[in-house]
Amino acid sequence: MTVTSALRTGHIGLNVTDLERSLAFYRDVLGYGVIGEGKEEGRRFAFLGEGGAPSLTLWQQAYAAYAASNAGLHHLAIEVDTIEEVRAYESALRAYGVEFAYEGVVPHGEGAASGGIFFHDPDGTRLEIFSGVGASGRAPVPAAPTCGFF
Hints:
Layout: E1 12-16, H1 19-29, E2 33-40, E3 43-50, E4 53-60, E5 76-80, H2 83-96, E6 106-107, E7 115-120, E8 126-131
Parallel strand pairs: 1-4, 5-8
Antiparallel strand pairs: 2-3, 3-4, 6-7, 7-8
């Protein structure tokens, strides 16, 4: 096999217990556009993204909430350009009633320029919204992750 380019993530698929609830969260709170939906009983899904290209798909085929103890997805990290955008999402998520794993923007390490917020979707899937710049100068949050442990 001859490889001519590096692998890239095309989209992420998440199993959800209630498509309408999850779709409202990802569409209305996080701002994902809906590209397409499947509404047939037993085959409900939503393709989310921009410009016709899906970046996230939701599949209603889970019967229980996310469990961190099971193999599979650890967390989904969503990148924005600035720390100000991270804070804007934090405000929107708070208004929606989302509980956070840690208070405020958490730097990805001592003196790191990158940092983000850590929270859960309606099914308990761990999510992070981060920026690669703007977190330097913030004190590390005690017991908070350097991205991977929450």
